[in-house]
Structure formats: C-alpha cells, structure tokens
Write a structure and sequence with these properties.
By secondary structure, the protein is an alpha/beta fold. Helix content is 42%, strand content 13%.
C-alpha cells in the first residue's frame, strides 16, 4: 500500500497502522512551511497514485489544499474531521468510551499532532478507515500504535512534572495544545502567524507579556525558537529580558515519537535553566 501524508509528524504513526511493506511519503518537504507550500506537478502525480492520503485540515495545508481536496473522498483521511470534536471545538468533555481526550487549548490551532490524545484518535480512525476497505487486521495494528502513543505521552507527562506551571513565549502560535496537555502556559508568541517576520508591535506584545507574567508569579519563563523560522527576533527578546531559550520543532523528520521526546526535553531543559543575567 502507498500513502502520502501532508506533514512529517504524521508519517511514522500512519506507517505503523498500514499493512507490512507499505510506504508513506511526506508531501510538504522538511524546512517548508505547511501554510505556504504549493505542490509541484510531481506532487500531484504522487497524490494521484497513492492509495491513502492523510491531511490535517483546519487550514494548515494552505496553498496545498486545492490539490488535496481533489483527492477522492474514499482515499483521503482528514485529521480534523475524524477525531472527536472536543479537539477542535474548544471545550472539555467526558468520554464514556475511555478515549484519551483533553481540553482543546485553542479551537483554531491546526497543530493537532502536538496533542498525543489527538494522535491516538488519528491512529484509531485510520484503522477504521482501512477496515472498511477490507483490511481486517488494521484495527489491531491501530490499537498497538495507540498503546505506544499513550506510553510516550505518559513518559512526557512524568518528565515535565518538575516544570509544571512553567511559562513560554513561543516563536509562533503552535504550542497551546502541547502546553495544555503537560501543565504549561503559553504567554504569547513572537510571530502570530506561521510565516513572515514579526512587526515591532508583535515584538513589544511578547515583551509586555513576559514583564506582566514576571510581576504576577515566580514560575519560570523561557522563550522558544523553531528550526523552520528565523530565530533572530526571539534571540533579541531573550537577550533583552534575560530569558533562557530552547529550540522546539513542530514538524520533525517523520517520527512522531522522537519528536515528542525531543520537544519534551527542550521544554524541560529551558524551563529548568536559571535565567541568564540581564
């Protein structure tokens, strides 16, 4: 079986649910913004040949959406459409079936994979999608993946206990789901959208958010950059305010489990670090 996922964080989880010997490629290449990447003719050909296309939705794929929406409904799974509405509707709820749901921290935030509970829902949905098309073993493979996701989630929660309540300025507004799941707080972002450069007003709002937070409590504060974006604006704020820094990666290279481990370690190291002298 051949599959295409729109962004790298979905690749490994999808691969594990598919039958043995399947291949999964990524539409939007590393280093490119999902919000602005426009598919090439070769991408369109790859999509047309795929047996399964997995996208995120909620506007994340931006310029790629016209090509993705041309895919037949029977071979496309959209992350935002198959998970429980609690992840996209901005409310908490109890689930009698025991599914792993959290409060949606930001109803318009499309970075669904940064919530481990949502990733478990995606694995379950892909298993069900394949089962409907004759793959009776797919739900069993999905259950195995969900077990692995929950174990990785538990490790992240345990690791971040020492910095619960820690506060973050992120490079762009992608981390509210992650923060809500692990007991952290997002004070603001340097860049309100997923591309471009911050304005002086954006920079000042981030600085004001840190100064206000410092006046309220003594919980640690750190500022985060991302490898896909220009780090210099965040570095200037960190230098001016004396904030520790870390480099979070919202996309990674295809292995969601390694991505969660990396971002957990970055959060822990930055929030546990003493603030540098100002």
């Amino acid at each position: 079986m051949t599959a295409v996922v729109s962004v790298a964080p979905l690749q490994e989880v999808v691969r594990r649910v598919l039958p043995e010997g399947s291949t999964v490629s990524v539409l939007i290449p590393p280093g490119s913004s999902p919000h602005t990447y426009a598919p090439l003719p070769s991408d369109a050909a790859r999509l047309s040949r795929a047996d399964l296309v997995v996208t995120v939705g909620m506007g994340l794929e931006g310029a790629s959406e016209p090509a993705l929406h041309r895919m037949p409904a029977g071979k496309r799974v959209e992350f935002a459409s198959v998970i429980d509405p609690a992840f996209t509707a901005g409310h908490d709820h109890a689930d009698p079936a025991g599914h792993d749901h959290t409060i949606c921290a930001h109803a318009t935030d499309p970075h669904l994979w940064l919530d481990a509970g949502a990733m478990a829902e995606l694995a379950r949905a892909i298993g069900a999608h394949l089962a409907e098309r004759g793959d009776a073993s797919a739900p069993r493979r999905a259950d195995a993946v969900i077990t692995d996701i929950r174990a990785a989630d538990a490790r992240a929660k345990a690791a971040l206990v020492p910095v619960r309540g820690g506060r973050l300025i992120t490079q762009h507004d992608a981390w509210r789901r992650f923060a809500a799941r692990y007991g952290l707080e997002i004070l603001g972002s340097v860049l309100p959208v997923g591309s471009g450069e911050p304005t002086p007003g954006d920079m000042q709002r981030a600085i004001d958010a840190v100064n206000h937070a410092r006046a309220q409590s003594g919980a640690p504060i750190a500022i985060m950059t991302e490898p896909q974006l220009n780090p210099r604006p965040a570095e200037r704020i960190a230098s001016e305010l004396g904030l520790p820094m870390g480099v979070l990666d919202p996309l990674g290279s295809g292995d969601w489990f390694s991505l969660l481990e990396h971002n957990t370690r970055v959060m822990l190291d930055a929030l546990a670090a003493p603030e540098p002298p100002r």
